[in-house]
């Protein structure tokens, strides 16, 4: 995908709104898992063959993760002049990287949100606790709801963040994934930022119309 060439280290400061912020609490160590999803939460679809389901280009407006109590609005995020991805303006909303595909289309869609601030937990404070099979639903502006299931949760150091893996083209042709990104790991008070990122990988499951 063309936009991946503009990506440097994209997720600096995702857990914070300013360098003066301190974390609400130290996040627990993330449990890394690569257990394949064998079951999908029941959802309403027009077909049981998900390979034939097509999602039109549309803008994500809502995000729901029932197992951790997340229901939030989703804005649009572009790139800063230095090539970094923009981050949501508050800890209470999420943002979709608008140069990626619509969630449910082929490729890697990315939604970002803050983990916390000095005021308390942010939208993605608990995503590190998600387990394979957890349901994630994105509501699009055309009224379609696209459902995904979590496949794994991984913590990466910011210095080794795999931007091509998270934002770029997929190794598997036809795969449709949604990746959720926030900050995690240890908090560096000297720099006012977290030292790692948490990425929740999910795969397309169905649509609700």
User: How many domains would you count in the coordinates?
Assistant: 1
Structural class: mainly beta
What is the global morphology? globular
N/C terminus separation: 29 Å
Largest beta-sheet characterization: 8 strands, mixed, barrel
State the helical fraction: under 10%
Tell me what portion of residues adopts beta-strand conformation: 35-45%
By CATH reckoning, the class would read: Mainly Beta
| Superfamily (CATH H level) name | Sortase
Q: Identify the CATH architecture.
A: Beta Barrel
Q: Remind me, CATH topology?
A: Sortase, Chain: A
The count of helical stretches stands at: 1
Strand tally: 10
The stretches of 5 or more residues where confidence is low (pLDDT under 50) are: 1-47
Structure description:
The chain is mainly beta. It has one domain: Sortase (Sortase, Chain: A, Beta Barrel), CATH 2.40.260.10. It is built from one helix and ten strands; from the N terminus they run E-E-E-E-E-E-E-E-H-E-E. The strands form two sheets. An eight-stranded mixed β-barrel has the order 1-2-3-4-9-10-8-7.
What key phrases describe this protein's structure?
single chain, 209 residues, mainly beta, Sortase, Chain: A, eight-stranded mixed barrel, two-stranded antiparallel sheet, 1 helix, 10 strands
Concise summary:
The protein has 209 residues and is mainly beta. The chain is 2% helix and 36% strand.
Strand-helix topology:
Blueprint: E1 60-65, E2 70-77, E3 94-97, E4 107-112, E5 116-117, E6 120-121, E7 135-140, E8 145-157, H1 163-167, E9 176-188, E10 193-208
Parallel strand pairs: 2-3, 4-9
Antiparallel strand pairs: 1-2, 1-7, 3-4, 5-6, 7-8, 8-10, 9-10
């Amino acid at each position: 995908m063309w936009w991946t060439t503009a990506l440097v280290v994209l997720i600096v400061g995702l857990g914070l709104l300013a360098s003066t912020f301190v974390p609400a609490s130290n996040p627990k160590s993330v449990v890394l898992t690569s257990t394949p999803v064998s079951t999908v939460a029941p959802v309403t679809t027009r077909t049981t063959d998900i390979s034939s389901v097509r999602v039109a280009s549309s803008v994500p407006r809502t995000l729901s993760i029932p197992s951790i109590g997340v229901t939030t609005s989703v804005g649009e995020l572009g790139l800063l002049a230095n090539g970094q991805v923009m981050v949501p303006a508050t800890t209470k909303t999420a943002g979709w990287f608008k140069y990626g595909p619509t969630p449910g289309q082929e490729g890697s869609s990315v939604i970002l949100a803050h983990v916390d601030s000095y005021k308390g937990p942010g939208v993605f404070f608990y995503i590190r606790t998600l387990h394979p099979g957890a349901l994630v639903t994105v509501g699009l502006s055309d009224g379609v709801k696209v459902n995904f299931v979590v496949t794994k949760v991984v913590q990466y150091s910011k210095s080794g963040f795999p931007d091509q893996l998270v934002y770029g083209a997929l190794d598997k042709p036809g795969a449709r994934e949604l990746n959720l990104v926030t900050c995690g790991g240890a908090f560096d008070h000297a720099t006012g930022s977290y030292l790692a990122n948490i990425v929740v990988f999910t795969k397309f499951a169905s649509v609700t119309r």
